[in-house]
Amino acid sequence: MSALMTLEEFVANRNAYSYPAVELGGSIESWNQVDFLSTRQMDRHHHELLTSQEDTKAVLGYFSAVSWGYFSGQDGVLRVARAHSRVRLALKGIGDGRIGGVEGAGRKIQAASGLLESHRCGEALSLLWELPQLGPAFASKVCAFLAPTKCGVVDSIIAAKYQQFGFCTDTKGNVKKSASNVGRYDSYCSFLRENAEKLNQEGSELRWKDRDKTLQTWRAVDVERALY
């Protein structure tokens, strides 16, 4: 197991993960907020949207990841207006013709999903950050919803807290768009998968408890949430 924390600390930290479990429902033109009783339910709904063969549903999943990422700050304060304003910017961005509109955005999401199936997480990350409102951190949120067993989120908090992962950041601490970070994301996701496997090998005693009180096995995204 990683020297970052003990087995018991991984479980305790994942159990304590408190970021809101929310998603967008409705359509890309008229969305509404959906609240979930567990993070697994939220992940499943995001995954179903993002992996849909319908471009409008896949794009709604991407918008939902944007909204979710801006929904709360480190202080725990909910900022619904901020989250929805970022979705409107994303909608405006895909309409300006640079990426081929909703169909072009859908193609990028489908291509990223294919890359993730082959564990090419860094390539998927760099493809997704071409979409409006998706820098590396938010692109990694989409990656995590597309393939929660294979990858997790890397944002300014993870990059600063665990500098051993080696992510390059700008003066504000944000993860940069760079070739080196593409490779580092691959290594980071490998770390998450390896530790998820080790935790699962320990059996039911080290499963984590979701908000609906169900015990769950570990995925890469769960290891990341324990680190967060």
List keywords for this structure.
single chain; 228 residues; mainly alpha; two-stranded antiparallel ribbon; 55% helix; globular
What does this molecule look like?
The chain has ten helices and four strands, in the order αββααααααααββα. It is mainly alpha-helical and 228 residues long. It has one domain. 40% of the residues are buried.
Instruction: Give the total of beta strands.
Output: 4
- What gyration radius follows from the Cα positions, in whole Å? 17 Å
> Helices and strands, in N-to-C order?
HEEHHHHHHHHEEH
Q: Based on Cα principal axes, name the global outline.
A: globular
Count up the helices: 10
Q: Estimate percent helicity.
A: 55-70%
What integer is the average pLDDT? 94
Sheet having the most strands: 2 strands, antiparallel
Low-confidence sequence ranges: none
Quaternary state reads single chain
When the domains are counted, the total is 1
Provide a compact summary of the structure.
The protein has ten helices and four strands.
Furnish the topology, listing elements before pairings.
Elements: H1 7-16, E1 22-26, E2 31-35, H2 39-50, H3 55-70, H4 80-94, H5 101-117, H6 121-128, H7 136-146, H8 156-161, H9 179-201, E3 208-209, E4 215-216, H10 220-227
Antiparallel strand pairs: 1-2, 3-4
Helix pairs in contact: 1-10, 2-3, 3-4, 3-5, 3-7, 5-6, 6-7, 6-9, 9-10
